[in-house]
Amino acid sequence: MLVLQKVYHRLSPPLNSLLLHRPPPSSRSSLFRSRSLSLRRSSASINAMTSSSSSSSSSSRLHNLVPAGALAEDSAAVAADIINSSAAAAVNADYEDDALNIGYRLPPPEIKDIVDAPPLPALSFSPNRDKILFLKRRALPPLEELAKPEQKLAGIRIDVKCNSRSRMSFYTGIVIHQLMADGTLGPEKEVHGFPDGAKINFVSWSQDGRHLSFSIRFDEDDSDSNRSKLRLWVADVETGKARPLFPSSDVYLNAIFDNYIWIDDSTLLVCTIPASRGDPPKKPSVPSGPKIQSNEQKSVIQVRTFQDLLKDKYDEDLFDYYATSQLVLVSLDGTRKEIGSPAVYASLDSSPDGKYLLLSSIHRPYSFIVPCGRFPKKVDLWTTDGRFVRELCDLPLAENIPIAFSSVRKGMRSINWRADKPSMLYWVETQDGGDAKVEVSPRDIVYTQPAEPLQDEEPSILHKLDLRYGGISWCDDSLALVYESWYKTRRTRTWVISPESKEISPRILFDRSSEDAYSDPGSPMLRRTPTGTYVMAKVKNGIDDGTYLLLNGNGATPEGNIPFLDLFDITTGKKERIWESNKEKYYEGVVALMSDQKEGDLHLDELTILTSKESKTENTQYYLQKWPDKKTFQVTNFPHPYPQLAALQKEMIRYQRNDGVQLTATLYLPPGYEPSKDGPLPCLIWSYPGEFKSKEAAGQVRGSPNEFPGIGSTSALLWLARRFAILSGPTIPIIGEGDEEANDRYVEQLVASAEAAVEEVIRRGVAHPDKIAVGGHSYGAFMTANLLAHAPHLFCCGVARSGAYNRTLTPFGFQNEDRTLWEATSTYVEMSPFMSANKIKKPILLIHGEEDNNSGTLTMQSDRFFNALKGHGALSRLVILPFESHGYAARESIMHVLWETDRWLHKYCVSNSSDVSETIGVGKEPVDSENKVVAGTGGGSPEFTCIGETHSMRRSLLWGRCGLDDF
User: Fold this and answer.
1) Which of 159, 520, 818, 852 is catalytic?
2) Could you tell me the domains of the chain?
3) Exposure pattern of 476-500 as b/e (b: 16+ CB <10 Å)?
4) pTM of the model
5) Is 770 among the catalytic positions?
6) Is 852 tagged catalytic?
7) Among the options 43, 169, 778, 802, which is catalytic?
8) pLDDT (tens digit, 9 = 90+) per residue, 376-428?
């Protein structure tokens, strides 16, 4: 996780929510608008699970790791050797000698040293913006941490020792700094009082900023089996002294779902492991009967290929055992009180006034075909003194949510507290039965109701929507913004409503295509209220009495993103640009408001914002900027994370596909490289396709040429250190205009995009036409295999990680395709590289985690694809990583992936000696009729894929991280 995680979403989050360990309750049903919704009242809760995991593990710890042999120590010498054919042959000989050896391997030092560099700390500001936390982190964790026992139940993975989600990373220490008026940091104050070796998770500020809460656990000890369970601690911010919150040492957190929240300045609601819980249920030696599923009612139930589901009654009992919690209300003085009975509590939220609790729990009957998010769910209302108020809803099992995008669960959903009221609830109910294919108006209705309504008082209708509800940004009785969208048409609308005035009619503020990045007006910035919630910030400009908001936007333009901050008159729609990123050298962004401590409207001349600043060669730093003179103060001064590549060359390039679609990519070249002097380089193209409804949207530029190149542990950019040219994230738009589905011409458009990219790097003289490799992760791996099958004239080899290759194994939709296999059979078949395994003649390296839990990318996909390749004599290699999931985490695994990739690229790309005269020309038809481009016939995308239009998606490509390929 990047330091302070720069915000590339359209709405700047509250400062102390920058590292939330989960989306706020108001955004859970609509992550794509998560930054625009009212945020949960609890202050900054920081998820150690998303931070980089351990450690400064030395190679001595990894006794089975062997360095690649005969690799030059000096990077310049290595670069020269790569170009020299005899030296390259020697490198390949060493790789060949090592290839069959058993054990984990280390990549060359120039790659290894970058990956092993110590991680920068994560940051979090206090609610009052006067202090800042530096959360210390380890580097990559050892494989032994991933090898710990876990239970795969109901779509989640559970660490049975910790009674938490498995594979949690952690912080190793907490440092507090005072933030001075000039932006400088005061002396370091370390949080102390806990034993050495503590693993810290779930760090959170109290609402007044005077205390920190966090969980602590230790490596399990044979003498104390409970040491690995999570205990809740608190620390006094002024002194840094930490202590256990519960006087008793036998109270442990249950961290399967929500684990605790702050109710007020001194009270927390905690999910604990029930004291009466005994040993886990034992698996019967003989099953009580066969496993039976029935559909004698002829219900239409279509679900995607979810993994880690419950399998039998024993699994159901295990899920109940680990997920059941007892809620405990505890004060800082140790006073405690149990709330309700033990249950599987999925979420906790307190009302802004701290008087009520909104408790969501799941219960039986469970399902064997959908994950726990679709289990029956009950939402209850309690008072914080332990009085049950009422049941808001009890939703049945939701196995039959249609697979069409924009389909939802029936009944009440998105139940939350209004951020601008003490204890007012709001929620949404679908009018189309949750089925996006049903035409009805309205489609969704938003309701509100007090926590304890008067007798016979019915819920009030707040707003009716014809598209699908996408969240609300609250301000006050006179102003709120309601969002709706429709995936199929990419339409998104923003409504202005007056929550407490029936006389003022709702009106549309923005109505646009979600794909049209150039027309994005930005999103309103939020400010913190005295009760700890977040509402839209109103600003007074000192000139008139108009109602002004601050719109924070990415500022997409044909030259790249130029982030901005606009003063926006909500009544007239007029805008005044009060801040804009430097577009010549730097990429800057507004991260959060820093002048929202006082109640009431903000004054423009007292505005203070936190900004980020970076360039092609300078890593991200954070600054305070204060009005009216807009003077800036630098807050951080982090060192360059990989100085050996500080002088890398980066350029955002544009070129055109043969059908006229404008394409973009980021071209990276090694430090000191000169095309005219050094000649063309071996090149690695790393990408991930995306679906669009129009050519115009597909051709828009996203990202900035001035962004700092983030290099993650499996990034393609690591091969800059091996003197490769890297074409990162070339846009590969799959377009379905009008009634046409995007996948109807998938292969045709895929190949055309790849041809255009290859032609461009060859035209520029930076890539050798016979030494261009292609690679990708997840849907990018799917892309890679398809390109080697249908465009063998473009690439010398490929690297495909954690992909899905046979779409008949995902028959009820995949990626952005929401037609079933039976509705679009030819699409599923023709898009599947598995079906074209006989056409793949170029070397392909397949890598997959043995425990991949991403929907659609079962490890079996790579197993079967490799067998198909081997059955046709294809030059291929399959690497299965023990204990790894969809993304790779352990140091041993990551280092071995890098070794395998480096070996593959040097053997089949750097040393590729194909005669150019015998190579099929770029853009020409292959000689073999079997290799001609085949047009696909299919198309669609879930909300959770990593396809997107923001910088964060591009950075995911660079880091080899992709979203849920088939969620």
Assistant:
1) 852
2) 643-910 (3.40.50.1820)
3) beebbbbbbbbbeebbbbbbbbbbe
4) 0.86
5) no
6) yes
7) 778
8) 999 999 999 999 999 999 999 999 999 999 999 999 999 999 999 999 999 99
